[in-house]
Design a protein that fits this description.
single chain; 81 residues; alpha+beta; 3-stranded antiparallel sheet; two-stranded antiparallel ribbon
Length: 81
């Protein structure tokens, strides 16, 4: 799990149920993407809020894992300062 801490001390990351139950202060969670089943292609698809496809596959579990990887990788490029 990748976490970023900005100069104000806020922690940014991709939420996971496996996140250790540590005290980081008050948590604010917002959706960064959605995973939906496409009946036309018979595949699960993950999209960011801008509509860009992040992942696609037959297994919802696999698509969610790919989605998480892409979103965590994006943390390298997010300007939060």
């Amino acid at each position: 799990m990748r976490l970023l801490i900005d100069p104000q001390g806020d922690v940014h990351g991709v939420y996971s149920d496996s996140l250790p139950h540590i005290k980081l202060g008050q948590m604010e969670v917002s959706r960064a993407s959605s995973v939906e089943y496409n009946h036309s292609t018979k595949a699960w698809e993950a999209f960011d809020l801008g509509g860009i496809k992040l992942a696609e596959g037959a297994s919802r579990k696999d698509v969610i894992e790919l989605e998480r990887q892409v979103l965590e990788e994006r943390l390298n490029y997010v300007e939060i300062f």
